[in-house]
Design a protein that fits this description.
By secondary structure, this protein is α/β, with parallel strands linked by helices. It has two domains: about 5-120, Rossmann fold (3-Layer(aba) Sandwich), CATH 3.40.50; about 140-335, P-loop containing nucleotide triphosphate hydrolases (Rossmann fold). Helix content is about 35%, strand content about 15%. This is Protein often near L-alanine-DL-glutamate epimerase (Cell wall recycling).
């Protein structure tokens, strides 16, 4: 996919910041690709970009409207069609990461055909995947896993790739969700892959490589989440991680969107090792990424220190404090300089 930049990020009427995590992720990692944001009345999310109407965004060079909202079921609400059609009429392409395809909306499909604009559905890969085979392949892989969904797995993977590359290690971020694909320009949204082929898609995404090359794989969902554990397990088996990092949000007591309790970090470590050994007997945990966004600086440092003591592993907030401690552990475990 060649999605033209710069972007106008469409936030719709997102009910909270987390609902607009696709847009926020693009801003956090590719702010220079964006001209502004477009919000509907009642929107409670804000990426910090200037609020622009479509005409102003076009005047400032905007070429693609990105639907930056992630909602339950990945649906496109009917009332979003009008602003999307207006963007198309103004000469913009449209890209989305929803389960529902843009062209499944008749108004949007007709507008794109009339004005000769392109529609990109990055969640729907055109690649045909084989079933996973579980055969060990050369190269190293690291996977971020979570105590819940939306706890920072993508940000942790991106931060690790950046830090490892800065040290001279051969590392590549491998996107497994729509936001990651927008950020990296490549990848596959594994939650849109037919269940039988999830592990095969993960194998395709992280192929055989040089022995010292690291694929840093964006995790999805949680093995403990009743909605998304299937995707998480398929990704774990296909990625065959040599190392994994547990991502955790310490202020939650229930998993997002359901009534199930949040598992402990130790429960996640133990189950990830147990399940991961099916395709990589040497899998190991190398650190914990603690999302301290809702904590003060003092509280964040206290929680991280307590986590280090409890788990005997390096812990940090990748956004707040960086990931050097985890990269040090990777170097120690795998004999890197």
């Amino acid at each position: 996919m060649e999605i033209e930049k710069p972007y106008l990020l469409f936030l719709g009427d997102a009910p909270d910041a987390l609902a607009a995590k696709t847009a926020q992720g693009i801003v956090d990692w590719r702010r220079d690709w964006c001209v502004g944001q477009l919000r509907l009345p009642g929107c409670l999310a804000d990426t910090g970009l200037p609020d622009l109407d479509i005409a102003t965004a076009r005047a400032r060079g905007g070429k693609t409207l990105i639907v930056g909202v992630a909602n339950a079921g990945g649906v496109l609400p009917p009332h979003w069609a009008a602003p999307i059609v207006a963007a198309i009429a103004a000469g913009m392409d449209v890209a989305a990461g929803l389960h529902m395809k843009l062209a499944d909306n008749p108004e949007i499909a007709a507008a794109a055909a009339k004005h000769g604009r392109r529609l990109f559905d990055v969640r729907h890969s055109t690649e045909r995947f084989a079933t996973g085979k579980g055969v060990k392949r050369p190269g190293k892989r690291l996977l971020t896993v979570g105590t819940d969904c939306s706890v920072g797995k993508k940000y942790t993977a991106l931060a690790l790739e950046r830090a490892m590359t800065a040290r001279g290690y051969h590392a590549d971020f491998r996107a497994t969700g729509q936001t990651g694909v927008f950020i990296s320009g490549r990848g596959v949204s594994v939650d849109a892959v037919v269940a039988d082929f999830i592990s095969g898609a993960a194998e395709w995404l992280t192929p055989a490589n040089d022995p010292d090359h690291w694929d840093v794989v964006e995790g999805q969902g949680s093995l403990f989440h009743p909605s998304f554990a299937g995707v998480t397990l398929g990704l774990l088996h296909g990625a065959q991680p040599d190392a994994f990092v547990v991502c955790h949000e310490p202020t939650r007591t229930r998993m997002r969107g359901v009534e199930h309790r949040l598992p402990t970090i130790r429960e996640v470590i133990d189950l990830t090792v147990q399940c991961g050994r099916l395709t990589n007997p040497d899998i190991r945990c190398v650190g914990i990424a603690v999302n301290t966004e809702r904590l003060s600086d003092e509280e964040a440092r206290r929680v991280i220190a307590e986590t280090v003591r409890a788990e005997g592993l390096p812990a940090t907030d990748p956004v707040r404090f960086g990931v050097e401690a985890i990269v040090d552990k990777i170097a120690e475990e795998f004999g890197l300089p």
